[in-house]
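quick one before i forget lol
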Amino acid sequence: MTVVRFLHSSDLHLGKRFGNFTGDLPGRLREARHAVIGKLAAHAREHSVETILLAGDTFDTETPAADVRRQALTEMAHHAPIHWVILPGNHDSLQATELWAQLAREAPDNVVLATTAAPIALAEGAVLLPAPCTTRRPGRDLSEWMDGASTSDGAIRIGLAHGPIQTFSEEGVGTEVIAPDRARRAGLDYLALGDWHGALAIDPRTHYSGSPEQDRFKHDRPGTALLVDIAGAGAVPEVTSLATAGFAWRTLDLHLLAGDDPGTMCDALLPDLRDRRQTLAKVVASGRTGLAARMALESAIARAAPDFAWLDLDMFGLATECAVEDLDQIDRAGALREAADALLVDSTDASKPAADRAVAAAALARLYGYAQQVSR
């Protein structure tokens, strides 16, 4: 009886620019994505795995820089005899003809480019059925060919595809491209999927591995790869999650009530000091608080920010209560008081969009803060 074991990963997005961050953080995040190759290889050696499947979007664009492309191949070559199977995804689709021509010329012997919808011998008695993305948005189910793909009797059938399934997709476009029951229709023992950046089991035979390094707060859990064991054709796969992330992206919910000490509550919410360098965190404040407490919260975030890779405070869901005494501390009359009164009205006007109310509340808090500084 054939037994097969492999690693399933996807969405490395090598070369991603992370232009929404500044300083040295974009470079650190890009390097972490390259380091994933070594981490996957280490897991492969530890678990006696010969093949690593990359289910699309190995590169972030159809025109990755030469150093990104070649250094990735060099690192993969370094980990021979481990084999890497690279599937074109929507970010690095076959429409990028020059990219795949370059990869074909430069790929080492232990790298297989799954650029054709045709069976690939994965191991003795195990066959890989790839569905490479032809364009960024093919608009059709490229895995359909697997239904009629011929393999020898008793062979383990493994599908490899990239794209949205059911009614969701990573980019919020295109739905139900891959049939949710493709594994059943095609007699697959396992369907390795890419595109969704969080690990997700569609059914016991169909899995998204998720990205090995997070690149957004959407999934809010560290990246992983999947170790897959199949004990013969027809057997239900045993799937084990393996840690791969170098950075953690965390959304931290902070609900406040009037009278709470936001500074103390925020400090208790943040991760341990030594973990912060590798953490991108977003504190999402909600509830109600006063102007002074709001300032205390902003100060607590400002004090902690240098410990983190990145730390942000989202107060759009935080209502700011304001007493007459608070406004008096800004000014008792004149232009400043008129501005404060107007901002207070705007921040509590239920007819205005929530975003506009939040902007008005933030401006009022800033005005209050300035007044406090001047009075010291």
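fyi The mean pLDDT is 90.
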